[in-house]
Amino acid sequence: MGGTDFVLRKILTKFEAMIELYTDGASSGNPGPGGYGTILRTIYQGSNPEFQGKLIEKEFSGGFRKTTNNRMELMAVIVGLEALKNPNQQVTIYSDSKYVIDAIDKRWVYGWMQKGFQGKKNKDLWLRLMNLYKNHQIKLVWVKGHAGHPLNERCDQLAVKAAKDKAHWQIDSVFELEEQKGV
Questions:
Q1: Can you tell me which residues bind Mg(2+) 2 (predicted)?
Q2: Residue whose C-alpha is closest to residue 77's, from 117, 120, 122, 126
């Protein structure tokens, strides 16, 4: 394991730094093949002088054979938060998804949860996300997509590449089953 991977793993299991997550989702067709991209960044503030003040960055991505853009936007955030091994991290999430940002900031998701997500899509992912969300101190920041923000653009590249990578597609079984049932 490389030095920065080791330090990143140590950071994610301790309370040593503010975490930034940049996220994006993409799909080719809606539904269609899709992917997510996530970048986790932090400035090391721990006790190891070799890494003190250095930027530590890790990229995550994955693709699915049939999904939607909104599901991939949710997955990008979920994967980033799942990388954090301990609760109560200070996390700023940057996303170009008004669906994700507004549902949380405007508290729509809490109403959806109270009503059992009646008539709402992506219940499985929203429950997964909110279970992670409650364990951290999170600030959400909307960034305009495709507007030249370097880290948002990189997340988009990761998501699009994963959506096209048929050899590594995962199966979004919840979505595909719900689609078959007409939910």
A1: 24, 156
A2: 126
